[in-house]
Every structure is written in C-alpha cells, then in structure tokens.
Amino acid sequence: MGLIVQKFGGSSVADADKIRNVACIITETYRRGHSVVAVLSAQGDTTDDLIEKAREINPNASKREMDMLLSTGEQISCSLCAMAIEAMGYPVISLTGWQAGVRTNSTYSNARISRIDTERLLAELDKKCIVIVTGFQGINKYDDITTLGRGGSDTSAVALAAALHADLCQIYTDVDGVYTADPRRVKGARKLEEITFDEMLELATLGAQVLHNRSVEMAKRYNVNLEVISSFSGNPGTKVKEVVKKMEKTHVSGVAKDKDVARLALVGLQDTPGIAFKIFSLLAKEKINVDIILQSIGRGDTKDISFTVAKGDKDRAKQVLEENREYLGFDHIDVSDDIAKVSIVGAGMINNPGVASKMFEALYNAGVNISMISTSEIKISVLVDAADADKAVQAVHDKFFS
Ligand code: ADP
Ligand code: ASP
Ligand code: MG
Prior knowledge:
binds adenosine-5'-diphosphate
C-alpha cells in the first residue's frame, strides 16, 4: 500500500467513455488500498483548438493571456473525471495547479516548477480522497497562471510524485510503453521492457514525444519510480530507471525523429581566431539554443559555419547575425527549415565505432543524403531533408532491430 501518481494524456481522456475508463483505472488502484493522485491533460486536441481560437482573435496574444486560456483545457478534463468518480461513489476532489500548490517561475508558456507546496494535497489524501490535479500548469510569484510547455503534464506528474515521495509514477498513454521508435510510424518498432533515465532523456529530447524531456530529467534527479503504460490495453508497460539489466552491453535502444529543426549557414566568414566565439555569444545573449555545429575547412581566407536551432528561433537568429554583419564579416546567410534530425540512442556507443558506420550504411542503402552529423556518448544524430526523414528512420530502425 502506498502513494501512486497516475498521469493520463489527452487521448486517454478524449471523450466521456475514455474518461469513465480512466475513472475505472484510478478507482481500481484506490480500491487496492493505495492513495492516488491523478494528473490529467486536456481532452484530445483541446490545447491545439484553444491555440487556434486565440489566433482568430489575436495572432500576437501575450504569453500570459495564452497561459490563462490554455490552462482551461486541463480544468475541464479534471472536473469531468472527478464527476465520473463521484458517480461511482468514491471520495474525490479535483484541484487546479494553484490549488495543488504548484509554484513556477514566470516564463509564461514554458514555465519551470520551482516548488510544490503539498499541504492541501496531503490534507485531501489524509481525508482518503482521490485527488485529481490539472497537468501542465502552475502559478508564479504574481499569482498568475503559467503553463509548462507542450507535453508538460508528464512533468507535472513527475514533480508531484517527487514532492509527495510517491512510491510509483505511472504515465498512462495511448501506446503500450516506450518503443524502439514511434510505433505509429515505424514498422517493426518493439516495446522496451525497461530503459535508463539517460537514454530516455536523449530519446525525448531528440523527438520521441512519449515523455516530456523535463519529466525524465526530474525523474532522474529525484529517483522517481517511473513507468509508461497504456490506458487501454492492460499490457505491462516500460520501466524508466537509473540502471537496467543490460547496462554493460552495447546496444541501440531507439531511433527518434525531430522535425523542429532549422539550419543556418554563415557563408564566406573571415578565417580569423575568435569568429565562432563572436557568433555563438551573440546567439547566447538572445537565449537562442544552438544544437549541431559544423565548421568547414578554410578556402583561402574564408570559411563557412553552419548550425541548427529550433524552428521558432530561426528568424531571430538570422536577424541578430544580419545586424552584426560587419562585426562578424561574412558574405551571406543560408537558411533552411526543410530538414529533420534523425538520431539513434543507446548506452556504450562511444566505445563502439561500428555503430556509426552501421547507421550511415543504412542511410546510404536507402539513398538518404546526410548534411550534418553529431555524436555524443549515447547518441548519433544526422540531419537529412525533411522529405527523407520517415524513410531514414525506417531504414535505420530496420538495420538495428530487424
Ligand atoms: P499523451 O497524450 O498520452 O501525452 P503523446 O501523444 O504526448 O501522448 O505521446 C504518445 C505518442 O508518442 C504515441 O502515440 C507515439 O505515437 C509517440 N511516440 C514517439 N516516439 C515514441 C516511442 N519511441 N515510443 C512510444 N511512443 C512514441
Ligand atoms: N495539454 C497540453 C498539451 O497539449 C499538455 C499535455 O498534454 O501534456 O501540450
Ligand atoms: Mg504527452
């Protein structure tokens, strides 16, 4: 008997029947003697629909007002789920982020949880209530509502599990667990019984949306007992943990795709010391995150530097660099966002040169051209044309997993 945090994503609460199904999972856990805190996302495409509604009124709405709007989606699903549980005769209460004590910083639309004041939650649990909490939201020091970034309900759930010292945090979703690639897009994707926090963090950061990457970071920091499981099938899920059984073996645990990538190339740069420092410090001042960087060998006294940023940052990055054209000394900037990043993730790659060549062979056989490469201890990423991305993921997945 313990405390279990259960999170249900948008597709798990999309309509009345699905909410009743979630109510059954929650009450079944409660009936087995556990205390339950359930964290819910907004129903189905509600968050996208709300964004669209805002666009119709004001395409440049402030992030504060967007958070005020978007937070309502989770309030609807939570109250409806509490009503379903009431109807089943169990004690239940739904709480918004602020009622549940979720405090955040003030970065509207991408806020970070700073602490959770657990008094109210603990009081409700003491009364033997099932507690339903809105995911994705909190309040800042001005008592304004903030949201945590798209997919952020996973992070709400893990943060609540950490703050309440829960015995288990279950992320219920529309697939059976974490797979070797997106099971909806990649033929032959296999479910993983377990995966390390580090590998999961890389996969999530590199585009596997099954978990919000910050939720994995937090689960690792607070050693939360984390599991990804289906709301519908009843099959065992995937355990996400510090150490897995196969730790010492070199293996690729997954393939991920990220389309939120843009590439900028500064062409004809002066080949002088300090130029990389100048470029990337300008971008850092604008808080623009740079991912893969490639510098060409100089031709005469010029060279090129290419790098990738998130699509949303590309225009600002270009503008900042153009504004500093004389200071930097370059010929022109090429921008492309018709690209995607395809990555493989797995422990022990750095000590196994064969892994990279196997990935490149798969891409060569599939006729996919690579424009940039980046490696780390546990991942290899390549940049390809967006049109080739799905073919590339399938080819790489077939190579390692068929
Ligand atoms: P939820 O609404 O429950 O939060 P998401 O849509 O955010 O669900 O995440 C689940 C989806 O993640 C799955 O439907 C699947 O298509 C996608 N996905 C991408 N990569 C993976 C992966 N490696 N394993 C499992 N699911 C993945
Ligand atoms: N409803 C939010 C979103 O669609 C949060 C979440 O689902 O995790 O991004
Ligand atoms: Mg999600």
